[in-house]
Each structure stands twice: as C-alpha cells, then as structure tokens.
C-alpha cells in the first residue's frame, strides 16, 4: 500500500498565454461536443521517473515554455467558452488569455506512490491544481479550459497533472495535444508534427433539421430510464475499488464470454457510421443537448490505443500516463501484470462490496480460475 503523501507545496497559479499572438475569433463547438454530459473537466496524470541525463533541468520550467509554444497552434485551449442563447450552444472565444499553470514540490519519492497501473492514482487530489469535482455546478462557461500542475518529487522524478474541459477534447485529442507539448519540450524540429484541425462542423446537426417523417436511428442512451427513482444507489463512499487485469491470452480464451457479447461488435461498427453520428448531432440540437442516461447505464472508455502512456517530454515514456480518477464508468488501459510483466488490459471498477465479491468470482469463473466449492461458499454469504 502506498504511504500517505506529505502535503504538496504549490506555487502561485499563473496564466500561461500562447508564446506569440493568435487570432481572436469565435469557434463553435459541434452539436455533439457541447452536450450536457461533456460539460465538465477530465483529469489525467503522467508520472516520470528520474533520468540522470536530465539532472539539473527543471521540468516545470521546461513544460511551461513548451505549453506556451503548443498553445500557439492549439490556441482555442487558451480561450474561454461562451454560451449562446437561446439553444445553449457553446462557442470558444479565442481570447488568448491562457491556461492555468502551477509548479509544486513534494517531499516524497515516486516509489512511495506504489505501483501505479491505472486509476485512481494515489493522492491524485494533491497532484492536480483543480481536482475532479472542483466545479460541483458542472460549469465550464467563462473558465480556463486547461489546468497544468508539475510536481517535482524528492527522487528527481515528477508528476505532470492536467485538467481539461471535456467539451474540447477526448482521450485521443488530449494525447495529441500532450504529444505536441512533449515535442516542444524535446526541441523536435517542425513541432508539432501533427497539426491540429478544428472541423467541428462535421459533427453538427443538419440545417434544416431532419424532417419528422424521415426515420432516424433510436438512441436509447439518451432516453429516460423508467422508474429510475426506485433504484437503490450506493453512495460513492460505500464503493470499493478493484482493478481487473486481463492478459491477451485470457481475452482470447473464454468461449462463454464471446457468446455473451455476440452482436456487440456489429452494434459498435454501426454506431460509427456517418448516418448514426449525424443523427446524434440532430438529436442534440432538437432536444436541447440532453445528458446521456445515467441510471442503469455502464459507460466504457477504451484507452488502450489512446497514446497517453507514450507522451515523452524529455524524460522518456511515463511510468504511468492516463486518467487520474476512477468513476462508476470504467477505463480500459493498457498494462502489464505485476510480477511476470505479461501485457494485457487493466479495467479498474468501483462497486458496492457485496457486488464486488460476486464480480471477482464471475470473472474468475469465466477465466477458469474458481472451483464450485468457492463459488458455493460465496453464494451462501450473499
């Protein structure tokens, strides 16, 4: 178990503006980007170990300068969101005000955080200058869109934490931006090697809207769940956390599990078709940008190919790069099994304690790792 981290000593927060002048303009978000369910800040943490060749180099100074350069190209991130009325349409006013940056010091070594393979990262609230939940009202309008904290550790390593408005970027977008910052930090010629493209109009509602007599795909993910108020929901403090690791061999092996998800790949492929995406944008505009259903809904984010674990800012690839916190949704992150280093996928899950006990048995049974006696003993306790 990781030892408790001593208090992090944060410096004063400052705004880092683009290194050079950028256009002042308004950029509308797409009708998918500005839906209610994305109006919050998503957090990530990147843990870098000491590199002897970089001794004496201040990572906070390096990343501050690199951030200013990256914001020249990704200048909407230096702006602020405004909400148009009526319709609650979100736009980015590219003001060039900048992103929030904090340099911090910690009196502990990286190893004292324990082996971090997935969220939640121990003591994440001390490694982020604006922790998850800081904006309880869910507001993103008029606030900085990006927050950075660079925490220098006693061992010579450091932790790079970020909070970013989810309306502007998903995991792939965050990885692209962070990679650009890393390229400037390393002095890569011609950085950024991947140029940003806005093109939000590709995910906007049709003008005029789809006629009512034209059949459109159903979207149950945005429909109200009947009798949701009768559900018994556990408080987050009563939930337990456990990561499940699946090796490539285990993922390929269980025939029963493949049978249980028969048809899901086809549904996933259909969801990526242009007509399906367009119909989501139409729905957002027609229904006032509703939040996706939360009750009886399980959200999965596959980050195994996001590139977050490969962001190099001059200290090599991070020991961990990915989400800072775990929620009722799950993040699938690339990982290695502790001990033998076997590659696979880690799935952190939070559940009430009795449900977690049952989950452990069900997963083990699918993988052939539980006998009938163990299962019967557990069943008697539930």
TrEMBL record:
Organism equals Oryza sativa subsp. japonica (Rice)
Tell me the protein family, please. Belongs to the plant acyltransferase family.
Isomerase is among the record's keywords: no
Q: What is this protein called?
A: Uncharacterized protein
What is the organism lineage in this UniProt record? Eukaryota, Viridiplantae, Streptophyta, Embryophyta, Tracheophyta
GO MF entries? hydroxycinnamoyltransferase activity
Q: Name one Pfam family in it.
A: Transferase
Record's keyword terms, sorted: Transferase
């Amino acid at each position: 178990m990781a030892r408790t981290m001593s208090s992090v000593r944060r410096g004063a927060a400052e705004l880092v503006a683009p290194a050079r002048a950028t256009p002042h303009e308004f950029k509308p978000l797409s009708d998918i980007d500005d839906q209610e369910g994305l109006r919050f800040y998503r957090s990530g943490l990147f843990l870098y170990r000491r590199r002897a060749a970089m001794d004496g180099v201040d990572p906070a100074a390096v990343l501050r300068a690199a951030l200013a350069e990256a914001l020249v190209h990704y200048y909407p991130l230096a702006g602020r969101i405004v909400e148009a009325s009526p319709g609650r349409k979100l736009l980015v006013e590219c003001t060039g005000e900048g992103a929030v940056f904090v340099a911090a010091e910690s009196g502990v070594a990286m190893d004292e955080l324990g082996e971090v393979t997935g969220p939640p990262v121990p003591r994440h609230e001390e490694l982020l200058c604006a922790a998850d939940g800081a904006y309880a009202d869910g507001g993103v309008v008029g606030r900085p869109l990006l927050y950075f904290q660079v925490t220098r550790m006693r061992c010579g390593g450091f932790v790079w934490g970020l909070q970013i408005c989810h309306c502007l970027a998903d995991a792939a977008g965050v990885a692209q931006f962070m990679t650009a910052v890393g390229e400037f930090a390393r002095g890569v010629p011609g950085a950024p090697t991947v140029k940003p493209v806005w093109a939000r109009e590709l995910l906007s509602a049709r003008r005029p809207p789809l006629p009512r007599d034209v059949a459109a795909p159903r979207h149950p993910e945005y429909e109200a769940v009947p009798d949701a108020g009768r559900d018994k929901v556990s408080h987050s403090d009563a939930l337990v956390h456990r990561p499940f690791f699946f090796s490539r061999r285990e993922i390929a092996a269980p025939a029963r599990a493949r049978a249980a998800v028969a048809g899901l790949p086809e549904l996933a492929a259909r969801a990526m078709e242009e007509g399906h995406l367009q119909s989501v944008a139409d729905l957002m505009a027609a229904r006032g940008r509703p939040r996706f259903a939360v009750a009886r809904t399980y959200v999965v984010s596959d980050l195994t190919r996001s590139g977050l674990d490969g962001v190099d800012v001059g200290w090599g690839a991070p020991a961990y790069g990915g989400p800072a916190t775990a929620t009722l949704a799950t993040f699938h992150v690339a990982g290695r099994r502790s001990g033998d280093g076997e590659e696979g996928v880690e799935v952190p899950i939070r559940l009430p304690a009795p449900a977690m006990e049952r989950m452990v048995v069900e997963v083990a049974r699918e993988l052939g790792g539980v006998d009938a006696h163990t299962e019967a003993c557990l069943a008697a306790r539930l």
